[in-house]
Every structure is written in structure tokens, then in C-alpha cells.
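I'll show an entry:

:::
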Amino acid sequence: MTGRTLNAVYSYLGEHLERQANRAAHRLGLGPNILAARIRDYFARGEQRESFLDELRSPYSSSIVLELEKDCKALIKYALPNESATTQIQAFKSIIMLTTRFPGLRSYFIRSKYIRRVENCEEKIATLWDRPDVPLDTREWSFWRQFSALSLSNGDISAMVEQCSIRELTCSCPTIGAVSVVEQLLVAYDSEGPSKFSGALSIRYLGGILELPSFWHNAGDANDYIVGKLCAKLLLILQDLGLEKRDVDEAPCDYLGVDCLADNSLVGIFGLAGGIQCENDIANKTWYANLCQVVRLLRQPLVEDRLPDSWKRVFSAEFLNLIPLVYEPVEVDIV
């Protein structure tokens, strides 16, 4: 048996055993995905979530917050190299989702003794995840390894978000001369940050803020202005993804973050549209034309696999009523 054949056999056996171990962990209520779901459940929804996020910033820790911190530290362990590469990737994705969806939660993750052993910067944290072996899918593992390290590091984007109260995060009309956090994150997406993942991190934080109802409760011209910028940026992001193209050898991409941003934007904008009495008034909104283009892109067939939540949203009865389907002629070669 050749060396190449032996390597293939070992790889197959490793994958098989790993799948069995993951299934067993799931049945026992273990593993990064189960733990991440438990952490997510602490935050409920709507105004309750906002209240709990404010509580995280309090110097006084309740028993619930202490339990939350314990779970955050436990999740960090699943990112360590003694776990399988698949388990690590699950942990990486969970860490990114939780630290950005719930602003302020990052501080509980970095209290882990493993994180405190190194300098809090992207590169040093990433070395904690390094494996002695080479993962089967090196590109995917490397992508999420680096992104998760950035989400835990003391960077400018995290500092911008965490220094604000929840009220300030969701305010579209700050003090005179100031720029809202949402606007700053939109700018940060286009800026060349210290990391190649800075833009992706901005998208993640935006998605988390737009999930908070207080942002959409802000009425008036200021909010219309922000929503207009949001729709324009979302359109550019979707265009950059090339959603109308089928790419067989696709490089890793944070579709999860874009899906979260797009879906939360659609939910909020639909709420705004629901408060507008006349259809003509909706069409006259500065953001309506870009919104129509966003919806058109999200209704492309290939979007279902990449951005599933947004794809379902634009085909919901509510959105079909707001922006009806437009059938475009397609040229077909007749043989």
C-alpha cells in the first residue's frame, strides 16, 4: 500500500471517528454549538435583550451574569488545538457570532485564562488555536481561526462599539457634530483596517445592532438618512459577493455575517414601511430604490444556499406585497 493510499485511509478514519464523536457530544448536550445556543438563550429578544446587554456593562455581576461568564470561558476551550479541527471551526464561528451579536459580551470571553496568557491582539490570540497537524480543509480552518481571533482582540472597531451604552449604539441622531455608531461601522467596512477581516467584523457588529428594536424606533429624517446609507451599502456588499454567479471553487467567505445584516435590515425596514400609510409615500422614500435592488439580488436562485434567512425573508408574503416579483425575460437557445 502506497503512502498516498495510507494517508487517504487515515484521513477517512479520522473523519469518521470525528463525526461519531460529534454526534455523541450532541446527544450528551456537549460541544460548541450546544454551548453557544445556551449562551444565546441568556439574551432573549427585543427590549429584554437590551436590558440584559446594559446589565453586562454594570460593575455588579448577578448570578446569571456569572453563569454566562462561566459558559463563555468554557466555549473558549473548544477552540483550543486539543479539539478536532471541525470542533474548532464550530467554536470559531460561535465566538464570532456571540461577541458581535451581543455587544459587550467579548469582555467575558477574554477573561478566559487561555486568552489572558497572551497579548490581546489578533495574531497572538490566533496562535492559541494553532494545531500540530494540518486540517483537511486548511482554507476554511484558517479563515475562521483568524476571524475569531480578531473578534476577541482589543481592536479599534470593538472599542468603538463597547465604549457606548446600548442607547448610544442604537441612536441614529447623536449630539450635534457627532456621527452615529452605525455610520461609523458603515465607514469602517470600506476602510483599510489593521486586519483583512476588519470589514467583516464591521458587518457583524452592524447586524447585531440592527437586531435591537431601539434602532428602528427612532423616527424622522435622521433615521431615514441612516436607512438610506444602510440600503446603499448593503447593495454594494451584495454586488461584491457576485450572488448571480456560480463559483465552483469558492474561497471562504463570511456569508453568515452578511445574511444576518441583510435579514435584520429587511425586518427593520419592513417595520418602517408598515408605519407608512400610503404606498406612494413608501416609493418616495430615499432608500426605496436601493431597497428594491437589494431585494432583487436576494431573490436570485443561488442566494438560497448562501444567505438562507434573507432569501426566505424576501419571499415572505409581507415582502412580496411590499415589493412584488418582477419577471425578467431570459434568452434561451433553441436547438
Summary: Residues 22 and 143 are 21 Å apart (CA to CA). The two ends are 50 Å apart (CA to CA).
